[in-house]
Amino acid sequence: MRKPFIAGNWKLQKTVGESLDLAAALKQETAGIDDIDIVIAPVYTSLTKVADLLVGSNISVAGQNCYPAASGAFTGEVSPALLKDAGCRYCIVGHSERRQLFAETDAFINQKSRALIDAGMGVIFCVGETLEERESDQMYDVLTTQVREGLKGISAEEMQNLVVAYEPVWAIGTGKTASDEQAEEAHAFIRGLLQGLYDENVAEATRILYGGSVKPDNVDGLMAQQDIDGTLVGGASLKAADFARIIHFKRG
Ligand code: 13P
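That is the input. Now the predicted structure with 1,3-dihydroxyacetonephosphate docked in place:
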């Protein structure tokens, strides 16, 4: 059985004070849950304070991005080791917003995954097709390339420190969630890719999260799918009550 993994990506939102308020509310709402991995990803400027607030809780903190170098003349960048030092356990890589708005390539995302694993961090590795790619029957090719190139050189053992997030670009921030069947189909395909790249054990053990307009009213159906092991939530992770309801998804 794969342990559910529910993550909130706060994107570019919330001051330090607002981040602390939300983290404190979530800490209360999730007290006592020990059978779900719960993760939140605030902006860089809130990380240390939020991480300090959550020490001893069952919520882990993630960075939203990193640069794949330990240190050096890289103005504006943050390394995996510094994220770890700030109290992060995970970092998101490959988010479609970074692929699209910041022209990040599969090779660069692969370097980030490598650097995070080398620094002892967990990786939330995102993939997903655009609407145009889906409608022109390129979805499977796109997912195959993103998974194969992004995970290049990551060993079967290292895959224990990585979760995959399938986020169809057309479902992000649009309120247009993939149907349970569409999401399950993509997840099963990605699991098949992992089986081909690694083996049955890695494919069965790796958690695959769904992201894209996950809300309190659609999480139960998504989480009931065989290959959906968690969610990566944007908008609905910004309100404690909504994110708490998503964490408390109904199990079949
Ligand atoms: P929304 O939940 O706002 O669609 O965002 C999804 C996402 O991009 C999470 O990383």
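The chain has eleven helices and eight strands.
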